[in-house]
Design a protein that fits this description.
Elements (H helix, E strand, L loop, with lengths): L1 H18 L1 H38 L2 H39 L6 H13 L1 H20 L3 H75 L4 H121 L2 H15 L4 H7 L4 H65 L5 H14 L6 H6 L20 H56 L13 H15 L3 H14 L3 H13 L3 H32 L3
Length: 645
C-alpha cells in the first residue's frame, strides 16, 4: 500500500513537473492580456458599429441601399476578427489542457499531505521512543556475545569435565594396568621360584635317594658324601640367588623405563594443563574484547544513525527552504501580475462605460453619474430600462408577427399566381411548338382563318385559349387547309405576346424572390427578436434573483402570458429534452403500467408533492410502527402471563 502511494506521489510529481505551473501561469497571463486587448478592440469596433447602425437607420432608402454593402463588409470583418479571437482562445485553452490533462487531483494530494502533517506528532513520539530503544539496545549490544560466551563456557566446562573424567579413568586404568603388570611379574617370578624349588626338591630327593642307596652300600664314604651334598646345596642356593638377582635387575630396568615413561607423560600433562590455562585466559580476554567491540560497534551504529538523521533533517530543511523560496517567488510573480492587471484600471473603467452604453442603453451623462452609484442602484436602473425595452420589443414583436402572417398569406397568393402563370407559359410554349408544325401545312392567312372557323364550328368540346386565338389544331384533329398559306403575319404577334408574357413572368419571379427574401429577413428578425427576448428574460431572471426586493416592480398583470411563453422557451433552451422526457414518461405511464402500479405511482406523487404530505406520511409510518410494537409487546406479555397457568 505504501509503495502504491509512493508511486502515485512520484507520478503526480512528474506530471506537475512536466506541466511547469509557473510557466503555464505566465503563459495564461500573457494569453489573457492578449484576449483582453482583443476584447477591448472588439468593444471599440462594436461601439463603432453601433454608431454606424444608428447613422444607417437615420438615412433614407437610397442612402441605406448605398451603405448596405459597406455595413455588411464591416460586419464580415468583425465576424472574421471574432473568429480569429475564438481560434486564439481555443488554441491557448488546448495548450493549457494538454499540459494539465493527465494531472491528478491536487485535492487528494493535499489531503494526504495534511494527514501526514497531522500524524507528524505521533511520528515524533515514535521517533523518540525508537531513539530510547536504540540507546537501550546499544547498552546491551554485547548480549549476544555474552550469550555466546556463556554457551562456550558451558561447552568448555562440559569438555573439561569430560576430559577430567577421561583423565581420571586413564589414571585409574594405568594404575590397575601397572598393578596387573606388577602382579603378573611377581607371579612369573614366583612361578620361576616355584619351578626352581621344585627342581631343587627333585634334586634333593634324587640326592636323598642316592644317599640312602649309598648308605646301604657302604658306610666309610659317608663323610665324603656329606661334603659333596653340602657343596651341591651351596651351589643350588647360589644359582637361586643368581636367578633372584637377575630377576631383580630386570625388574629394576622395567621400573626405570616405566618411570621414564611416566615422567614424560607427567611433563606432557603439565604442559597441556598450562596450555589450557593460557588458552582459557586468552579466551576470557578475547571475550572481554569482543564484548567491548560490540558495545563500540553499537555506539558507532547509533552515532551513524544519528548522523544520518541529522543529514536527512538538514536535507529536508534545505528542500523546505527551497520550496518556500520558490513559493515566495511565485507569490511575488503573482503579485506582480496582479499589479500589472490593476494597471489597466482606467481602461476597464472606460470599457465598463462602453458596456453600459451598449448593453443597457446608458447615455454619457448616465455613465458619468453611474460611477457614484452602488451596484444595486445600477442594477435597479438597468432592470427598469430592460423592462421598458422588453415592453417595446414585445410590441415590435407582435407587429412583426402580424406583418409576417400578412406577408405569408400574400406570398402564398403570389405563389399560386406564379404556378398558374407557369402552367399558362407551358401551354403557350406547347402551342408555339405546334405553330411551327402548322406553318408547314398552311400557305396563307386566309386558309388558316377559314380552317380555324371551321374547327370552331365543328368542335363541340372545350377550346383552349391559345387555340381560340391562334387556331391551333388539337391532338387527333385533321386540318383540311391548304399548304400554300404562310405564318409570316401571325409570328410577330405571337412573338410579342410571348415576350410580354415572359417579361411579366420574370417580373413576377423577381417579386416572388423579393418577397421570399423579405420573408427570410423577417424570419431572421423574428428569431433574433426571440433570442433577444430570451436574453432579456434571462437578465430579468438574473436581476430578480440578485435583488429580490426589486422583483416586485415588474409588470406582472399585463404580460404574464408572454412571460410564461418566454419562460417555457427559456427552460426548453436549458433542457431541450425535458418535454420529450415528460411525454415519454406519460406514454409509459398510460400504456405500459398496470393499474396497481398507476395507483401506487399516483399515491407516491401525491405524498411526495410537498413537505406537509411528506411529514404526515412520515408521522403515519412512525405511528403505525409504534402501534405494531405496542400490540406485539402486549401480546407477548399476555401470552407470558397465561403460560404458567
Amino acid at each position: 500500500m505504501a509503495s502504491n502511494d509512493n508511486m502515485d506521489l512520484q507520478r503526480a510529481l512528474e506530471v506537475w513537473r512536466n506541466a511547469d505551473l509557473p510557466s503555464l501561469q505566465q503563459t495564461l497571463y500573457e494569453s489573457v492580456l492578449e484576449i483582453k486587448k482583443l476584447e477591448s478592440k472588439t468593444l471599440e469596433t462594436k461601439e463603432f458599429l453601433a454608431q454606424e447602425i444608428k447613422q444607417f437607420k437615420a438615412l433614407d432608402d437610397d442612402g441605406k441601399v448605398a451603405e448596405f454593402n459597406k455595413i455588411i463588409k464591416r460586419f464580415q470583418s468583425e465576424i472574421d476578427a471574432l473568429t480569429l479571437r475564438s481560434q486564439f482562445s481555443e488554441q491557448k485553452l488546448d495548450e493549457a489542457y494538454g499540459k494539465i490533462r493527465n494531472a491528478p487531483d491536487t485535492k487528494l494530494l493535499l489531503s494526504s499531505t495534511m494527514d501526514i502533517l497531522n500524524k507528524q506528532g505521533s511520528l515524533d513520539e515514535l521517533a523518540q521512543e525508537n531513539k530510547e530503544l536504540k540507546d537501550r539496545l546499544a547498552k546491551v549490544a554485547d548480549y549476544d556475545k555474552l550469550k555466546e560466551r556463556i554457551s562456550e563456557l558451558e561447552d568448555k566446562s562440559v569438555k573439561n569435565l569430560t576430559k577430567r573424567i577421561l583423565a581420571k579413568e586413564q589414571e585409574v586404568n594405568s594404575k590397575w594396568a601397572e598393578k596387573d603388570r606388577n602382579w603378573e611379574k611377581k607371579e612369573a617370578e614366583m612361578s620361576k621360584q616355584l619351578q626352581l624349588l621344585k627342581d631343587t626338591n627333585k634334586l634333593m630327593e634324587a640326592k636323598l635317594s642316592r644317599k640312602a642307596d649309598l648308605a646301604n652300600d657302604s658306610s666309610p664314604s659317608d663323610e665324603e658324601h656329606d661334603g659333596g651334598v653340602s657343596v651341591q646345596r651351596s651351589s643350588a642356593e647360589f644359582d637361586l640367588l643368581a636367578q633372584e638377582l637377575e630377576s631383580a635387575q630386570l625388574r629394576i630396568l622395567d621400573l626405570e623405563t616405566r618411570n621414564e615413561e611416566l615422567s614424560g607423560n607427567l611433563a606432557k600433562a603439565t604442559s597441556i594443563a598450562e596450555q589450557e590455562s593460557e588458552m582459557y585466559a586468552k579466551d576470557m580476554k578475547i571475550n572481554e574484547l569482543e564484548s567491548e567491540n560490540a558495545l563500540l560497534s553499537a555506539t558507532l551504529d547509533r552515532e551513524r544513525s544519528s548522523l544520518y538523521e541529522l543529514n536527512k533533517r538538514k536535507e529536508e530543511h534545505e528542500k523546505l527552504t527551497a520550496q518556500r523560496l520558490s513559493s515566495y517567488e511565485n507569490e511575488i510573480q503573482t503579485l506582480r501580475r496582479t499589479l500589472a492587471k490593476y494597471s489597466d484600471y482606467e481602461q476597464l473603467k472606460q470599457d465598463l462605460a462602453a458596456l453600459r452604453k451598449i448593453g443597457f442603453g446608458d447615455t454619457d451623462g448616465d455613465a458619468e453619474n453611474g460611477d457614484d452609484k452602488s451596484v444595486d442602484a445600477a442594477l435597479v436602473t438597468a432592470n427598469k430600462k430592460l423592462q421598458s425595452t422588453l415592453v417595446e420589443v414585445r410590441g415590435k414583436n407582435q407587429e412583426l408577427q402580424s406583418m409576417n402572417s400578412s406577408l405569408t398569406t400574400r406570398v402564398s397568393q403570389l405563389q399560386k399566381q406564379v404556378f398558374e402563370l407557369e402552367d399558362l407559359n407551358a401551354k403557350l410554349e406547347a402551342d408555339l411548338g405546334k405553330i411551327d408544325d402548322v406553318s408547314t401545312r398552311f400557305s396563307d392567312t386566309a386558309s388558316m382563318i377559314s380552317g380555324v372557323t371551321r374547327q370552331i364550328t365543328n368542335r363541340t368540346g372545350r377550346i383552349s385559349p391559345s387555340s381560340s386565338i391562334f387556331g391551333i389544331p388539337e391532338d387527333g384533329e385533321q386540318l383540311a387547309v391548304s399548304s400554300t398559306t404562310t405564318t409570316d403575319s401571325i409570328l410577330p404577334i405571337v412573338v410579342q405576346q410571348r415576350d410580354r408574357i415572359r417579361n411579366k413572368n420574370m417580373e413576377l419571379e423577381r417579386q416572388v424572390k423579393q418577397k421570399s427574401l423579405d420573408q427570410g429577413k423577417l424570419g431572421l428578425e423574428i428569431q433574433r427578436l426571440k433570442k433577444d427576448n430570451q436574453k432579456l428574460y434571462e437578465r430579468i431572471r438574473y436581476l430578480s434573483s440578485y435583488s429580490k426586493v426589486n422583483s416586485t416592480s415588474r409588470p406582472q398583470s399585463a404580460s404574464s402570458d408572454v412571460e410564461a411563453q418566454y419562460a417555457s422557451s427559456y427552460e426548453e433552451s436549458l433542457h431541450p429534452l425535458a418535454n420529450f422526457k415528460k411525454l415519454e414518461q406519460r406514454r409509459y405511464h398510460s400504456r405500459k403500467m398496470s393499474p396497481l402500479e398507476k395507483v401506487f405511482l399516483t399515491l407516491a406523487t401525491k405524498i411526495l408533492a410537498n413537505k406537509t404530505t411528506r411529514m404526515l406520511f412520515l408521522f403515519y409510518c412512525f405511528g403505525l410502527h409504534a402501534l405494531v410494537m405496542m400490540m406485539s409487546l402486549y401480546v407477548i406479555r399476555s401470552s407470558g402471563s397465561t403460560v404458567p397457568a
